[in-house]
Amino acid sequence: MDELDAPDAPEATSSEVAAPAASETLSDGPGRYRLVAFVSHMGTSTSSGHYVAHIRKQGRWVLYNDTKVALSEDPPKDMGYLYVYAREDVPTV
């Protein structure tokens, strides 16, 4: 609790932040991602309705809507507010 009342530590300036050397390469391969979940809004406006989640489980989309859980045959992927992606494994050479 005392930590909440303590003053914040000063932020580091740009000269104090270590940057990678120009010759250093920071690549671990091409990034490949797949959509695993998204949150969308059901209702006529943001002042009415509620948010629901679609999560991909075992190759199928599942709708989580308050206390109801159901398969989603045609999830509205274009209507999402928040999208969650997982990085696919990239084979090492």
Describe this structure in words.
The chain has one helix at 2-5; strands at 33-45, 48-57, 60-65, 68-71, 80-87. The protein is mostly beta strands. It has a domain at 30-88. A five-stranded antiparallel sheet has the order 4-3-2-1-5, with no helix packed on it. The radius of gyration is 21 Å and the shape is flat.
User: In angstroms, what is the radius of gyration?
Assistant: 21 Å
Count the DSSP helices.
1
Order of helices and strands: HEEEEE
What is the overall silhouette? flat
Assess the beta-strand content as a share of residues. Answer: 35-45%
SS class = mainly beta
- State the helicity in percent bands: under 10%
State the end-to-end distance.
50 Å
Let me know the largest β-sheet.
5 strands, antiparallel
How would you write the strand order of the largest sheet? 4-3-2-1-5
Low-confidence stretches: none
How many strands?
5
Instruction: Round the mean pLDDT to the nearest integer and report it.
Output: 80
